[in-house]
Please model this.
Amino acid sequence: MDLDSANLVEYELYLKGLSENTVRSISSDLNEPDWMLEKRLASLKIFYSLEMPHYWPHISDLNFDNIVYYAKPKIGSKTYANNWDDVPEEIKSTFLKLWIPESEAKYLAWAWGQFDSTAIYHKIKEVWKEQWIIFEDLSHALIEYPDLVKEHFMHIVPPTDHKFAALHWAVWSWWSFVYVPKWIKLTQPLQAYFRMNTFLWWQFEHTIIILEDESEAQYIEWCSAPKYNQLSLHAWCVEIYVWKNAKMRYSSVENWSTNTYNLNTKRAIVDDNWIMEWVWWNLGSWATMLYPCSILQWDWSKSDNLSVVMASTWQDQDVWAKVIHLWNNTSSNIVSKSISLNWWINTYRWIVKVWKNAENAVCAVNCDALILDEGSVSKTIPLIDCENSSALISHEASAGKVDENQLFYLMSRGIPREKAMSLLVNWFVSSVIRQLPLEYAWELNRLIELEMEGSVG
Model:
């Protein structure tokens, strides 16, 4: 598919090729302060100094000079619309398929939409605005709340972390900034949609979430992209701060096209008595490197990591869960469900680090792999580094195929083989699905059915 036929959206700014001029142009268009431009330029130098990661899937096809790093669609006089009727029709038609207005009307505290490099729509319920909750795009938050952003920006994920972290910091644009004040409990989920629509484009959105003491929040992100004939890259970064006695659930559903490299770094720092929950799904993409990490830095902090990863035709999924126990009585729970079909690869790595001062740390890991054909591969690579003898760490892993007896039972009740297989696969991942709102659970079940169509003999 060529650019003219793929892109019906008219762009105001379209920056292709990686250079210092590209970085300066992005910063200028976003009207950023000088300190942010300095961080960008320093990160670009670090990017050029670092080698490509050696432990990731094959990504040598990436051409850094043949990619659009910033694409700003024309949407009239506003940077984004607060009224759904003001969104241009060609963009609105895309997001209508993702049910933004319907979802907002039914249950969302705030619906947020980003199209390529630009936020195009957002709306927050007045009841939350009155309680000083901030849910803004990060580029605007940088201007409106500069001290709050500067205090937390690039604090958990430094540009020296790896080559694509440095690239992200050099060319990042937009996405979400969430701040929940002390004692405020957000009872409805905040939600964001991202659409990567531009041909030969890379997206570098950044998310910062801050929960003050005694607060609670849920945040859900849904990402998608159409398929073109050229490679695209999604290099996302998430920083989450959960302070004393706070509770945060971060959910992510990523359904990329199979020409997309999906390289994500997500990290949370957890304070005294607080809870961090990661719930994420990954479907699609040519190659995925997805690494959520929780740093349990004070007494009684806790982290849960629940994930489902599906590798189908032309997909190599390499995902991690990492937990660092720094202090006493911390606990973590890692549950992974992976599905492999059509002769492709799932790799699940988990790292548990218990420092010598972390008395009575507890960690439970459960990794289950379902392989649906003779040629697919599922690999589990655990790493435990424990420096305190009082820690209690358990690891349980399984790999297998669908039970033929269960499949026969369903087929004997008149259910076609392909539908019966989908039912059993959905049951396999049900422990993670039920952690999401009903609308998401239904959609994910349907996505699994679509992935499996024609793949069951």
